[in-house]
Specification:
The complex is a heterodimer of chains A (295) and B (479). With 295 residues, chain A is of the alpha+beta class. In chain A, 32% of the residues lie in helices and 13% in strands. In chain A, strands 4-3-5 form a 3-stranded antiparallel sheet, with helices on one face. In chain A, a hairpin with a 6-residue loop joins β1 and β2. Chain B has helices spanning 12-18, 20-49, 62-94, 101-123, 137-159, 168-193, 199-233, 240-253, 267-279, 281-295, 308-331, 334-338, 342-372, 378-410, 417-463. The chains are: A alpha+beta (295), B mainly alpha (479). At the A-B interface, α1 of A face α3, α6, α7, α8 and α9 of B.
């Protein structure tokens, strides 16, 4: 192989192949992705972030938070739950039909899962037989996996979730926990700000460094009025140590910290999508019930 | 300043001397940035197990130290060393003098300026957020144009060769010099100038990171290995056809891998990427077989123990180990387990330090005495070798095992997250020790470089020769 031009052409061709296959084709496939309309509510998904959250994303990027926190939930094989919402008129027949589905099926109660299986086909057949017996039965697709069991997300993360992320901050290592749905896990801005100031104040076992440079510490006399914008200490009453004497410290978040907290609060991709079904939350949304304070 | 020789009838020694100035700029800058990268990397590594260390300063968050260290290493050290090795190989194998060497040296200075601005930009909070591309746009522009110019001048030098037959290293260097501007400009255009949306950004980012390793640093490290190992051992290359096969396999499959196992992208992209990672075993085996057969019967140590020969042999071993580990991760269940853990980081370090950096160290220790006429102190080179080997093995081993354990524990949802991190701490600590050894080795490298410059300067003054008039000017390293 003594021909320079031959090498040049070969090198050009191989690079063009990789460029075409890994850049052009994916761009043609998913580059033109648009927000979708969600079935039940008619809302568009995803929606662009609010202005303050966008500023917060810039703070997140600039300080390199993504080097410790990933934003991607993985899932293993989904399971299928056969659920009964109403037993209908003949409860005994329903119970009998349910017992025939599988030997593991126990008592049948409305609103409870009758049977869990890995096969969509089996679940559909079981639901059909229950409906035949007069009950109102449905199949719910439940995503599983360690990430989901840890509560890091209701479902797997898909391309649609990141449509408005510029730059996308997936992260590549979990030195800290995944924060895909931190907005649902810790909805309180106050909690986020205290956590940024000193994580150990609100989460005893945290290894995260505090970002005190995003805050102002103001000393004031105990009888003086609190500093404007200072954080409420109710959340950290047990852990925050005041200086001795007649002074106390007020912690005032800088605009960057407030924006960052707004960004974190905005992180909650939980809309059920065709490619990533999520179990429809029954009754009250579970997210609001999440504990706000972890002592 | 040595006069540019454009006559084609240069003697080989004169030809090599013509690239002295650009090489001193490249290798001096590389030594400087290597030390910067290791110091920053070491600080970042300490912060992993002592989060309150340097925590109150906005410029020393882990998220700034780590990308600054990575970029200094990739662009400051590895890329500059690659430019230097490519230029020298083009000159040496083509028996041709560099036309206007000062032009390349000047571009090298621009490149260094770009790296400096980029690293400063990361500390100032202008990081772009894309791994290995963190340097902001205002630094990427000088980097791109200087690299384009350096590549072009090196290819012109290559084109003017008087030795028409092409040796194996020349294929690699031509390919890498064509690939780099393409890869770098595509990534920058699609991420910053005409940004793509959503996960397409991540795909472009992974493509870039993979190609930066596989199609830029790897080919030039292999070029150094294919030139120096047979030359030093004084053996002919075992098989040119095997080398040719390995080269085209790398070209064909090198640009396709790099997408993590469970990325939120269409599944075929992950499959293609994993398949390509498995296929990369072919070029690695071709290189390994070729080198093993070439060196069969050759003495274990050429020159002195721990010399350039040892650096290059260690580089080949690391290349093979890193490729095999990459195949295991791509082709099996551990791949999904290893995502988001330290295992991938360990492999990247093995590739960058164990393979690429070691190959370049060996090459630089061979090249510099030839172009300056001064000699290195063998003892210090040997000490550098052992520090680097020990540091790499400890660092990569600790992070690798830590990553496997982290992956297994993360998969167990009953294990609270802070417990997972607690069990990783011991690995972080051991990894920091490894990194400290690497840092000491890198300091020795910079020390060796400065020592060579001093010797060279003394020789020039003592013998009144126009040996290296430009050398003292670059004694300060990059800036």
């Amino acid at each position: 192989m003594n021909f320079g031009p031959l090498i040049f052409l070969g090198v050009f061709f191989t690079m063009a192949c990789s460029w075409f296959g890994m850049i052009v084709v994916p761009q043609l496939q998913i580059g033109g992705q648009q927000p979708v309309k969600l079935e039940p509510t008619g809302q568009m998904y995803p929606l662009p972030r609010a202005g303050s959250a966008q500023q917060g994303a810039a703070v997140y990027r600039a300080n390199g938070c993504a080097y410790c926190h990933s934003q991607q939930v993985r899932q293993e094989q989904p399971v299928f739950d056969v659920k009964i919402s109403d037993l209908g008129t003949n409860a005994a027949l329903v119970a009998e039909v349910a017992r025939k589905i599988h030997h593991s099926v126990g008592a049948v109660m409305p609103g409870k899962t009758v049977w869990r299986t890995f096969s969509k086909k089996e679940a559909d057949a079981a639901a059909k037989s229950l409906v035949g017996a007069g009950a109102k039965a449905s199949v719910v697709i439940v995503p599983t996996g360690a990430d989901i069991e840890r509560g890091w997300g209701a479902r797997v993360s898909v391309a649609q979730d990141y449509l408005y992320d510029q730059p996308i901050l997936l992260g590549s290592r979990r030195i800290g926990p995944d924060i895909t749905n931190i907005g649902a896990r810790k909805p309180s801005a106050e909690w986020q700000l205290w956590h940024l100031y000193n994580p150990r104040l609100v989460s005893t076992d945290s290894f995260m460094p505090g970002y005190r440079f995003l805050f102002r510490e103001v000393m004031r006399r105990k009888d003086a009025p609190p500093t404007l914008g200072a954080l409420d200490k109710a959340l950290v009453a047990k852990t925050f140590s005041e200086p001795t004497g007649e002074f106390i410290t007020d912690i005032v978040p800088a605009p960057e910290a407030v924006a960052l907290a707004a960004y974190l609060a905005s992180l909650n991709p939980d809309a059920p999508l065709f490619e990533a079904p999520a179990p429809v939350p029954s009754a009250a949304p579970a997210t609001n019930a999440a504990p706000v304070v972890t002592p | 300043m040595s006069a540019p020789q454009t006559l084609p009838q240069n003697s080989p020694a004169e030809a090599e001397a013509s690239c002295r100035l650009p090489l001193l700029v490249f290798f001096g800058g590389a030594a400087f940035w290597l030390v910067v990268a290791s110091v920053l990397g070491h600080l970042a590594s300490i912060k992993l197990h002592s989060p309150s260390f340097l925590a109150d300063c906005p410029y020393s968050t882990y998220g700034k130290l780590l990308p600054a260290a990575t970029n200094a290493l990739l662009y400051g050290f590895a890329s500059q060393a690659a430019f230097g090795v490519a230029l020298w190989l083009a000159v040496r194998l083509g028996s041709v003098a560099v036309p206007q060497p000062w032009l390349i040296a000047f571009s090298g200075k621009i490149w260094n300026l770009g790296v400096l601005v980029g690293v400063a930009g990361i500390f100032a909070g202008d990081s772009t957020g894309f791994e290995w591309l963190e340097m902001p746009r205002y630094a990427a522009v000088p980097l791109f144009f200087s690299s384009l110019f350096i590549s072009l001048r090196t290819l012109i030098t290559f084109h003017r060769r008087t030795e028409r037959g092409l040796a194996v290293p020349q294929w690699y260097l031509v390919a890498a010099l064509l690939w780099f501007p393409w890869v770098y400009s595509t990534a920058n255009l699609l991420l910053f100038c005409h940004p793509v949306r959503g996960v397409m950004q991540a795909i472009v980012g992974w493509w870039f990171v993979n190609n930066f390793q596989m199609l830029w640093l790897t080919p030039l490290a292999l070029a150094a290995i294919f030139h120096f190992l047979p030359t030093l051992a004084e053996r002919p290359l075992h098989s040119r056809y095997l080398a040719l096969f390995g080269f085209w396999m790398l070209a064909l499959f090198g640009g396709w891998s790099g997408v993590p196992a469970s990325a939120p992208v269409p599944a075929w992209i992950v499959s293609v990427s994993n398949a390509a990672a498995v296929m990369l075993l072919i070029p690695a085996l071709a290189v390994g077989l070729n080198i093993v057969n070439t060196l069969r019967g050759a003495p274990k140590i050429v020159g002195f123990p721990g010399g350039p020969y040892c650096f290059l042999r260690f580089a080949v071993c690391s290349y093979l180990v890193a490729t095999v580990a990459g195949v295991v991760i791509a082709a099996s269940a551990p791949g999904a387990v290893a995502q988001f853990t330290w295992l991938k980081t360990a492999l990247t370090h093995l590739n960058l330090y164990g393979f690429v950096a070691m190959a370049f160290f060996g090459a630089i220790y061979e090249i510099l005495p030839r172009v300056t006429g001064a000699v290195f102190c063998g003892k210090f080179i040997c000490a550098h070798f052992w520090l680097a080997v020990l540091g790499t093995v400890i660092h990569v081993g600790a992070l690798g095992f830590g990553g496997l354990k982290q992956g297994a524990l993360l998969g167990d949802a009953q294990m609270p997250f802070h417990e997972v991190i607690k069990t990783s701490l011991v690995f972080f600590r051991v990894g920091t020790v490894g990194e400290l050894l690497i840092l000491l080795g890198n300091l020795l490298f910079a020390f060796n470089f400065v020592g060579l410059l001093v010797k060279c300067a003394k020789k020039c003054c003592g013998q009144q020769m126009s040996c290296c008039g430009a050398a003292p000017a670059t004694a300060g390293g990059a800036r």
